[in-house]
Amino acid sequence: MDINATLYAPTFGPDEIRRLLSSIAGPAASEFRRVVETMQTESDSNPTYRVRSGIGMYYLGRPLQAIELLTGCNDGLGRFYLAQALSTLARHAEAADEFDEAAKLGFRTIESKLRRAGELRKDGQLEEAEKLIRSTGSEGARLAEYSYQMGCVLFDRGDSYGAIEYFERAVDMDPHDPRMLFSLAVQNSRYGNDEEAIRLYERCLSKPPYYTGALLNLGLLYEDKEQYSAAQYCFERVLRYDPSNERAMLYLKDIEATSSMYYDEDTLKQQQKLEQLLNRPVTDFELSVRSRNCLAGMDIRSLGDLTRISEQELLSGKNFGETSLNEVRDLMRQHNLTIGQNLHQKAREATPTFRDMSPEEQAVLSMPVTDLQLSVRSRKCMARLGITTVGELMQHTPDELLAAKNFGVTSLNEIRAKLTEQGLKLRND
Asked: Which of 166, 211, 330, 361 can pair with 151 through a Cys bridge, CB separation 3.0 to 4.6 Å?
């Protein structure tokens, strides 16, 4: 399409903006930028150009310039986009006022009210926001914006499943709105539906405005699937628009470190064979009846259990004497193992005793790690390591966490910060 002709057309409204968005996302993005910047220079002599270039700046990811161009305009469309630019900068009270002005100027009155409700909610006025949403009645309920805003309210109230239902309804009604796609993607990721989350994030980023959060989250999901070049592209794209974004810089460093890691396949195969051996039941081997019964009485079921107990502990077992000990020694020696060689693991895996702790301290250590509100990457690493509670997390050292797949310095710093908030820290930290 002719971007220049569309921006300079006699009439300019939502339909023209929709057509332009497909061009901004494609190879004509540089042409769109050039026309918007040219129109900005001409805006002093033509107020109409001022509104159009302001909207263009919003879609180019330049909210400050958009606000400068759109502030004080008497155009409902312009005030609507001024409100969105203010919201981008978290100036929610001002954004709420501007959505109200857009409604008064007759621009999409019901949608403007619903968008105003969203800014009130972000400003901490949850009750007032819900009241305003419901005040739009059946006319509002027919809009995707209504379902989206209700989903946000329910999520803020802690009703995740209700929120998902509303977000799905909103996306069904408007399959292209990036805010709705982003919110539904976040919920799918929280519940482990990574493939669907990736699909939704990709749709969310198919055209502007581009959300930094969507790029970061999608990059982490790509990284988790070892699609490192795609992840790197996402983080670099964030830095292109926001060169000082610390999260993107740290994630990019993690990607570079991960891509330079060397994996020894032979060593990995040996480790897998060792794990299989340690998991073999002691009943698979030739042992005397007494030795079998003694080991069963001490709840020793596998060769791995024998590597996590000392000879003194074995001898303290009922009816377990030197003869049985020598028999077990011979068994372990046949498989290049020794009794007690992994005693250090037993110490680490032992469940923390709560005997000398207050009820409050016990509650903190029993708290699920999901309550720490970790990032996608950190949550997945916790799942891989089988860590479900804060107490279990504290039993790990920083080095042990860093050895986990896709767990980098960024995630370690996040874990440390979350534990510090609870007055806790990692083992040996």
From this structure: 166
SS3 of 389, please? strand
Of 110, 163, 112, nearest to 140 by C-alpha is 110
Q: Do 146 and 133 contact (CB within 8 A), yes or no?
A: yes
First to last CA, the chain: 59
Q: At 368, is the secondary structure helix, strand, or coil? A: strand
CB 214 within 8 A of CB 185: yes
In this prediction the pTM is 0.64
Residue 123's CB is within 10 A of a number of other CB atoms, namely 17
The matching CATH number, chosen from 1.10.150.20, 3.40.190.10, 2.60.40.10, 1.25.40.10, for 354-421 is 1.10.150.20
CATH code given to domain 265-347 = 1.10.150.20
**What is the pLDDT at residue 344?**
55
Structure tokens that stand for 123 in this block: 């400003």
What's the CA gap between 193 and 325, in Å, rounded? 50
Q: pLDDT-derived band of residue 243, with 50, 70 and 90 as boundaries? A: confident
Per-residue tokens: 134: 């419901």
- Reported as a single tens digit per residue, the pLDDT across 37-78 is 999 999 888 878 999 999 999 998 899 999 999 999 999 999
Torsion of CA 40, 44, 45, 47, to 10 degrees: 80
